[in-house]
Write a structure and sequence with these properties.
- The complex is a heterodimer of chains A (108) and B (116).
- Chain A has strands at residues 4-7, 10-13, 19-25, 33-38, 45-49, 53-54, 62-67, 70-75, 85-90, 98-99, 103-107.
- With 108 residues, chain A is mainly beta.
- In chain A, the strands form 2 sheets. In chain A, strands 2, 4, 5, 6, 9, 10 and 11 form a 7-stranded mixed beta sheet that branches. In chain A, strands 1-3-8-7 form a 4-stranded antiparallel beta sheet, with no helix packed on it.
- Chain B is globular and about 40 Å long.
- In chain B, the strands form 2 sheets. In chain B, strands 2, 4, 5, 6, 9, 10 and 11 form a 7-stranded mixed beta sheet that branches.
- The termini of chain B are far apart.
- Chain B is 0% helix and 50% strand.
- The chains are: A mainly beta (108), B mainly beta (116).
- Chains A and B meet through β4, β5 and β10 of A and β5 of B.
């Protein structure tokens, strides 16, 4: 199975900051990567698919980039509602679909 | 509007069984890939099982031989039969659809607790 590794596992940031989360795949996955946001007690929400395509309704401050093994999720101007845990997921080789371990974005 | 509603979670003893349901509205379960994904308390997301539109089923190694995914087309409902439950199966279980790229619709989750 392809292993997905995110960094950092958590960090603190302030509203208005530009933040970047990294995801690395254990082998090349082309652009078959999705990003999810999860808030406490809620189901994950699809933000980005195909590494850089925004899901309908997702604010444009979210962006994704990368291909092959290295990917990033960037939030250009952090808002209060963006404090959450973010997961990457590969859908290049499945089953199984595999997720990163998550990155928690906390308020500084 | 697409909606997925899980039910059937609860407290069960080790070795016991439980059946989860995921009732869908706004789209057709049998026309999509449908998966179960779980999240242990304080942990990340783990894919559990999938049923393809053609009916093929697959499982994570951690549940293979113990869990069975199925669907009832006329009820537009997805199921997960869980047998021989272990403490490590304790988690919130989500159903999710993934037509092409990414898991786009998720239920609210149902908590399964395996404990004596």
């Amino acid at each position: 199975a392809i292993r997905m590794t995110q960094s950092p596992s958590s960090f603190s940031a302030s509203t208005g900051d530009r933040v970047t989360i990294t995801c690395r795949a254990s082998q090349g996955i082309s652009s078959y990567l999705a990003w999810y946001q999860q808030k406490p007690g809620k189901a994950p929400k699809l933000l980005i698919y195909a590494a850089s395509t925004l899901q309908s309704g997702v604010p444009s401050r979210f962006s994704g980039s990368g291909s092959g093994t290295d990917f990033t999720l960037t939030i250009s101007c952090l808002q209060s509602e963006d404090f959450a845990t973010y997961y990457c997921q590969q859908y290049y080789s499945y089953p199984p679909w595999t997720f990163g371990q998550g990155t928690k974005v906390e308020i500084k | 509007e697409v909606q997925l509603v899980e039910s059937g979670g609860g407290l069960v003893q080790p070795g016991g069984s439980l059946r989860l349901s995921c009732a869908a509205s706004g789209f057709t379960v049998s026309s999509n890939y449908m998966s179960w994904v779980r999240q242990a308390p304080g942990k990340g997301l783990e894919w559990v099982s999938v049923i393809y539109s053609g009916g093929s089923t697959y499982y994570a190694d951690s549940v293979k031989g113990r869990f069975t995914i199925s669907r009832h087309n006329s009820k537009n409902t997805l199921y997960l039969q869980m047998n021989s439950l272990r403490a490590e199966d304790t988690a919130v279980y989500y159903c999710a659809s993934h037509p092409a790229a990414g898991f786009d619709y998720w239920g609210q989750g149902t908590l399964v607790t395996v404990s004596s």
